[in-house]
Amino acid sequence: MNNSRIVRAAAVQISPVLFSRDGTTEKVLQAIAKAATQGVQLIVFPETLIPYYPYFSFIQPPVLMGKEHMRLYEEAVIVPSPVTDAFCSAARTYEMVVVLGINERDQGSLYNTQLIFDADGTLLLKRRKITPTYHERMVWGQGDGSGLKVLDTAVGKLGCLACWEHYNPLARFALMAQHEQIHCAQFPGSLVGQIFTDQIEVTIRHHALEAGCFVVNATSWLSPEQVGQITPDEQLQRVLKGGCNTAIISPEGTHLCSPITEGEGMAIADLDFSLITKRKRMMDSVGHYSRPDLLQLHMNTEARTLIEEYKWQFTSDADVFIPKT
User: What is the end-to-end Cα distance of the chain in Å, rounded?
Assistant: First the structure.
């Protein structure tokens, strides 16, 4: 593990181009190009930024949200596709690790999906949120444990979770136990108000302290005009404001730059990996401070499939099924 390096990271607070996959994609590509001029090596974008977070599901009852749900299907991202190819190219061109949230369409289902592109343009990971939250369950399917991975990337050992997955301590521990150096967190933003901003603050700082890693967190932001596009109801508009907290946190739980809680912007900070050792010297949750003789995590990392193929094996006793190799 290399703990003697410095990585420049950016967390982007950005507005989607509502109802447009192509429009949001172009805006994100422009942000990557801008970050490159500032020497950024890792860039993190918000949850399901492309095409946009399904805010409609938070303010509409299921019986009324069919039209908006169908529109999201039409604008969602297929993996692979020209959209993902564009980000492979951008990551390779700027030699930058890119962490991006999308609404993924897989045939007749949508998923809250996180993509990690390495600095050589390789799509390293496509992981789906394991449990959509509350209203989101009307929109997205569930992911599986195959995405709970920490990856060796050009900027170090990288893991990611989306929004309230951070309230699942075993999901976080699964990444911690793989010695995550940088944790990429994504939240929707422009939701629920100041209480959500405050909750994000507690959540990301706690994970940084507990994991002894950096946390790079990005949230989206909706302009007043966009809130009006989503709903003309002024009462409902109130819950589509605030809730933004784009920030970069050190392994000691401190902010490395000013957080962004309003408007669009880019939080940029240098991650000094020596701080990981400094923190873990005192408290290593998955090392000298753990007690595996008392407490262990058992997890299923297999990708969920609908069909498992078998073949016959003939033995002297009986004919039996064994998994096909």
Answer: 34
305 in any annotated domain: no
CATH number at 274 reads 3.60.110.10
pTM (predicted TM-score): 0.94
The Cα–Cα gap between 254 and 110 comes to 36
Between vectors from CA 215 to CA 23 and to CA 260, what angle results, nearest 5°? 55
Q: Which residues are catalytic?
A: 47, 129, 163
The answer to whether 315 and 157 are in contact (CB under 8 A) is no
Report the number of distinct structural domains present in the chain.
1
Count how many residues are written for the chain. 325
In a domain, residue 314? The reply is no
Cβ proximity of 217 and 162 under 8 Å: no
Cα torsion angle, 105, 109, 110, 115, sign: negative
For each successive 10 residues of the chain (325 residues), what is the average pLDDT? 85 98 98 98 98 98 96 98 98 98 98 98 98 97 97 98 98 98 98 97 98 98 98 97 98 98 98 98 96 95 85 61 60
Position 29 in a domain: yes
- Is 1 inside any structural domain? no
Q: Which domain holds residue 266?
A: 6-292
